[in-house]
Every structure is written in C-alpha cells, then in structure tokens.
Amino acid sequence: MAILRLKYRKVGYMKFLSHLDMVRLMERSFRRAQMPLEFSQGFNPRPKINFAAPLSVGVTSDAEVMEVVLTKKVDIAALLEHQREAFPAGIELVAGTFVDQVGQSSPKLMGSVSSCQYLISVINKDTYSKEVVETWLNDFMKQDAIMIEKVNKKKKVVQKDIKPAIRSFALVSVELEGHMVLSAHLDAGSESNLRAEDLMHALDGFPGVEMDLETLRLHRQKINAGDKDIYDL
Amino acid sequence: MKKSLDDILYLVEKPARYIGGEINSIIKEDLDQKIRVGFGFPDVYEVAMSHLGMHILYGVQNTMEDVYCERVFAPWTDMEKQMRDNGIALFTLETKTPVKSLDLLSFTLQYELSYTNILNMLDLGGIPLRSAERTEADPIIFAGGPCAYNPEPISDIFDLFVLGEGEEMNLELISLYKAHKTKGSTRKEFLRAAASLDGVYVPSLYEAAYNEDGTLASFEPIAADVPKKVTKRIIQDMDNVFYPEKQMVPFIDIVHDRAVVEIFRGCTAGCRFCQAGMIYRPIREKSTEKIMELAKKMLESTGYDEVALSSLSTLDYSDIENLIYSMIKDSEDDKIGISLPSLRLDSFSVDVLTEIQKVRKTGLTFAPEAGTQRLRDVINKGVNEDNIFNTLEQVFAEGWSRVKLYFMMGLPTETYEDLEGINEIANRTTYLYKTVQSPKKKGSVAVTISTACFVPKPFTPFQWQPQDTLETFIEKQKFLREIITNKKVKFNYHDAYGSFMEAVFARGDRKLNAVLIKAFELGCKFDGWQEYFDYDKWMQAFELCGIDPLFYTSRVRDVNELFPWDFIDVGVSKKFLYREWENALTGKVTPDCRNNCHACGITQVFESGGFC
Q1: CA–CA distance from B96 to each of A53, A143, B89 (Å)?
Q2: What ipTM goes with this model?
Q3: Are B21 and A90 inside 8 Å of each other by CB?
Q4: Fewer CB within 10 A of the terminal residue: chain A, N end or C end?
Q5: Contact B303 A32 (CB under 8 A)
Q6: Chain A hits for B358, Cβ within 8 Å
C-alpha cells in the first residue's frame, strides 16, 4: 500500500466544478491513468481519495492537495508528465510525493488544515483610490468584533464574530474601473473556519463600502497546516 | 452593463452544464478551414449527455478531418434568461461559437415534447424558425431520430430530415454540403441535391393536399427528380461500424452516467404498441468479441466504473449468457459494475441480476404492461401470469423486497376489468412476498404500480387507433386510485395532459407547424418537464390556429387513410401492421420472429441476414 499525495491547480472552467464533481473526476482520472487503486472493503468498494479542503464552486486554486491510496508505488514523474492524457484541461498536477502511512488508518489530511490564503478580486460600484480602500480595510479591521449572521447546524441564525479568524486582510492593488484585488489569510479547519465569501459580505456591509458582490472572484493560493503548506506536512 | 459568459456562469445553477472540456470531448484546430457542424439535443445537459446516439454521431462526424462537430444543448431556463438579458446567443459547448455561424446544425428528435425547445434554441441562436425564412447566412437546419419518422408536424422548421441510422448517411450529407460550399451553391441548390441522397427528406420539395374532412388527400414531390418514397437507412455490419470507444465523460452527475456499449439494434419481440420495435428492424447484433473489446477500451478511455449493455431488449442477445459471464469475470478486479437497461420477466433475468448486483438490493422494475392476459395478448406482450409471479417469487427469494411494476393505460380494447387486473397483480405480489421462505428476505414488501398513458405511434399496428380522451384517462386514474387500497402498494401515474400532446404530434400533419410555433410564441418550452408543461397555453395555441387537437388523437383512422408518414419506408409494410392490428383484435399472439418469420416486409427492403 502507498499513499500518493498530489498538489494540483484548479483553473479555467474547472472552477465551476463542485467538490462532488471533483471526487468523481479524480477517481476517473486515476482509472484512466491506470493507477493501481486501493479500494475500501465492504459491499460497495470505493477508491480511497481524500482532499485537504473542499473548494467552493467558482473558486480557482493554485494549491489544492489530495491523497489517493494505491496498492503499490508508481512512477510519479511519469504520472505528471503524461497527466494530460488522463486529466481534463484546467486540472494541473504540480507535484506528487509518497507520504508515510500512519499505521493502517486513513490519511488525516483534512484534519491538519489550519488556514487558507486567498486572492480576492471584486469590482466596486465606484472608482476609489488606493488610500480610500486602505482606510476602509483599516477601519474594518480596527473594529472590536466583526459580527456576521450564520445559519448553524440546527438551521438557526446565530451571530458570530469572525475577527479572530482573520489572520491578515490587505489590499494588493487597485485597478481600473473600480476593480480591486485583496489578499486574505483566514482560519480553516474544524476549530475555526472562515470562508472568504463571508468575509467579503461582512466588508460589503461596512459603512462607506460599496462593492458589487456579483463580481466577487476568489482564488486560493495556499492551504496551510500550521506554518507549513499542507503539501509539505 | 452586459455580462460575459464567464460572469453569467457565476449566476446560474450548475454552471458546469455549459463549460465543455470534458474528457474525450473533441478539440480541433484551424476552425476556419473546417465544415462546422452542431449536434443539437433539445433538452438539458444531463439528458443530452445520457443519450447514446449523441455520442455515436458526435464521434463519427468528427472522424472526418475537414469537419468539426460540436455539441449544442438546451440551456436551462435560468441560463436562458441570463443569455437573453446579456445578449449572449446560443453557443457550442466546445468552442463557444454562436450557432448561427455554423454550416449545419442538427437536432435529434427523441420525444415530441421537445419540439418547443428546438424553436427556443433556434431563437436563442438568432436563426429564423421557419426553413422558408432562412437566408444564405443561416446554417442548414436538419433533424433525425425516432420522431423524424413522422416529420410532418415540424416540416416547416427543418430544411431537411435524415431517416434511419446516421453513421453513413450523415457523413454523406456533410460531404455533399462541403462540395456545394466549395462550388458556392445556394441553399436551394444544396437542398435539391440532398433530396437525392438515400434517407434524406427535404420537406419543401413535397406538397400535401387535404380532403374536406382534414385527412390527407395526396402527398407528392414537386418535381420528377425528387423521390416519391424515402427509405430509412440502416447499418448492415454492426462489428465494423464506427463506435465511440472514447465516450465523453461529463463532470456533473447525469441521468445515465456510465460507459455504454450497444450490443444490437432492432428487436424481435413484436410488441404491438412499441414503435422502436418496428422502426429499428431488422435485428443486427455485434459479436461477443467486439462487445468485450469495446467494453475494455471504453472503460480504459473513460475511467468509468460501470458499463451498460444497451439495446431494446438486452437479454434477448443471442449469446447473452456467455457475454455476461465473461464480462463479470473480466471486471471483478477493477470493481467494475455491469448494468442492464431492461429486464425480462423470466428466471434467467433474475439469475443474471443476482450475479451482477451483488451489492445493492435496490428496487427492481418489471413491465407486464397490461393487467390481464387478454390485454397482454392484444398488445403481443409475450408474458403470462406464470412468468410474472415465478419471476417475482425468485426475486423475493433472492432478497429484493421493492419492485416497481410498469403498466400502460388506455391500450386499445382496454376495459375496467383490465385495470382491475393491475390491482390484482399488485395484491398477489404483496401476498406472494409473505409466502416466500428465504433467509435472504429482509423487511416488508413495497410494490409500486406505475402507469403511463398510451400514445399510439406511427408505424405500429395501433397507428389507426384513437387515444383515450383526457377525461377517460383521468377517470381511469381515479378508478385505480380508488381500488388500490393495499397499504404496501404505491400507485403512480403519468400526467395525461403531456401524453395527449405527445399523441397529437406523434401522428400529426403539416397543419401542426403553425400550432407549434404559436405555442412557442406563447411561452411553451421544456414541455417534457412537468413543472414547465403548460396545457392551457397549448390549448390557446390550437384555438388561435383554428385546429382541433382531437382530430389527431380521438379519431379511428380508416384502413385506407393516407397517413402523413406513409411516404417513408421503414421496411415494415403497412399491410403487415394492419394484419397485426387484426391479430390484436382477436388476441392472436405473434411469437418472437427470431424463430419464425412473420413477413413484416423488412427483408423486401433490406438485404436479409442474421435472423432475417
């Protein structure tokens, strides 16, 4: 048995695939690449594929990480080299490595995720200067608490302070016609988790800020486990 | 501000319906040097991508180096709205090319209730709805598929129809188009030439005249060089015909998400209600070796974990036992599932099922079609009570507890006794479950009775017969609802209004073109989807056009009546069909024709071979 960890990009039209679509796509791509898949036991054997962190529909990424369990080691360089025969355009394998297996238990990839970094692009309803946008962000972050409404598991609307989940939030550039690019480093994982969409909705509600959230575009740059890229864990 | 395609994809449900780029979808270069063809399927992506004919014709047309065939499907209503609001015309999935700039755009006609979607797609593409209104700047719009066997209700829409199997005919048509494009011919010149291709029907080259009672008086070509009869095309050699070994693999979940190997065409059962059983004759099989080879290649190229053996009646394949057991043996290591789209009511079906469905004991569907032996004999459904109950007993003993039994309502000669028969079968089934002793039995039984409303179709022995009226259907549904009191039986029935509209168009004539266009203008689309079907709008369209829909559905047609589809030769003779109607009336069964030819006429038209 061998656990193959892969880092891949999800770009172009592939951003419109849901997490479930990705699970299907990966299984089929591995079959096409004739990877020796290890299957789960039981009545409905499934290949063992795990993703570090599901990506929302519409979000592109440079740094998705997943693991697949194989019956034996394969030539990773050959898999990467011939990936276009098995994977659709827009899913680009960047790196692969075999990871040590911890006993016989399944990989704990998802449980190790602690934060994600995003690039955020959005168009404002008006053109603002760099200084104006920086003032928004400063004032926004200076609040004691940043409250948003969330629907919890019991389908009740609850108030939640997202400020502790924001590790950084900064302006990258102001472009033409109100277009701005921000970067955000946000908690991710079971203990504390903040979606970039929720952060941007909170910012949109801040006095003076007027964005057109229909133009919101997100790009994941990195998934972290502690201070490391989760791929290097 | 107008939004881009990328922008609107953020605003619609399931954007991956519109992105293309699937594994095995085809990308070509030098687009301006290609003949550009669109394969249109007038329904949503999940339905279109589940259709084997689409995969075949897409693949075979793309084997031509100088041709690029791309897919064009109906956008769902949310996407349509975004496209219209933002001035985005209907486009091909592969290269997002507006359909108006294609050379040819075809549509497959799988069901009558998709016709308004075709109009909607043309409209979204900026292409005039009527053939007569199109100019040299528009693509040639053509259609094929089962509903093309009565093309008359949509004869004004299409420039031409292709009748029968397309693997050879479509390539001939495209080649002819290319030659004419190179020459600089007009549409008219091309269509005139196309009419001489075997299997091609160009409606503008024929004239229909009507009797005072509205029936067809004559149907004639307008010139001597236009054929009087159009004979459907078939493929003789099923082993050497093109097959999509590299089936496209969708990203999103679709209706039938698996590799499909077609194992034969045609059907020898001879059920009298079934149009497919008549129009796809003669029976032609692929060899077991070819099927095994295709399954292997397709699983490799797609990465699917399931392969379906497709045909009109898969378990009738002559080498079925060997085929299935060989496939099971081959597929075990890779955890590949095998699925059969249709099951017969016999013990062999259950044996096979037990082998291939080791895992999930989900529900099973069987189709007795009618509630009494008398009516099953009328429709020539070669199934008796022993078949039904022995099969169910075996199924229950193997551990299944949920069965769905499918029936048709409104079959010719049907009485309330036949409907009571449906209830009796349901009751006997739940009782049978109690009596079955088996260690595999789990839980209690659940029987679903599902009834569809019978639609008489052209080229069947029932083509002369009326459809039950809406009132009768509704009365019969109510009757069954009331007599089915068994708590373990669930009763479902298909909407009668949609089946009525289907029946109008199934045996319609040219006068219906106006109604169809009117209905579209009134907002009808996705008529096959119950949430969109709007009966009142349809009735309004009929009224505005001064046409009585009952003329098409409720009339007993005279034995000598000239039908709008009579100019098409499907191989099965009208004489044979009428003989079968007479047999139906006397309850005389016509056995499977693999063993005994009943002279349906197919061998007169096509080279005989196989079982014929």
Answers
A1: 31, 47, 10
A2: 0.94
A3: yes
A4: N
A5: yes
A6: 43
pLDDT digits (tens, 9 = 90+) for B393-431: 999 999 999 999 999 999 999 999 999 999 999 999 999
Give the Cβ contact number of residue B544 at 10 Å: 14
pLDDT of residue A105: 46
* Segment (H or E) for B293: helix B288-302
Q: Which of A29, A34, A89 sits opposite B21 (nearest CB)?
A: A89
Chain B nearest-CA distance from A24, in A, is: 8
Tell me if B302 and A32 make a contact (CB, 8 A cut-off). Answer: yes
Rounded to 5 degrees, what angle do the CA atoms B578, B580, B583 make? 115
User: From start to end of B181-229, where are the E strands?
Assistant: 200-201, 206-210, 216-221
> What 3 state SS string does B386-397 have?
HHHHHHHHHHHH
Paired tokens of A87: 């994977």
Count of C-beta atoms within a 10 Å radius of residue B26: 17
Q: Do A39 and B22 touch (CB under 8 A)?
A: no
Tokens of B465: 């017969």
Report whether B199 contacts B162 (CB < 8 A): yes
Q: CB distance A57–B301 less than 8 Å? A: no
Largest CA distance in chain A: 61
User: Residues of B203-218 as b/e, b for ≥16 C-beta within 10 angstroms?
Assistant: bbbbebeeeeeebbee
Is the pLDDT confidence value at A39 over 50?
yes
pLDDT digits (tens, 9 = 90+) for B487-513: 999 999 999 999 999 999 999 999 999
What are chain A's domains? 2-110 (3.30.70.580), 115-228 (3.30.70.3190)
Q: What is the domain class of B5-231 according to CATH?
A: alpha beta
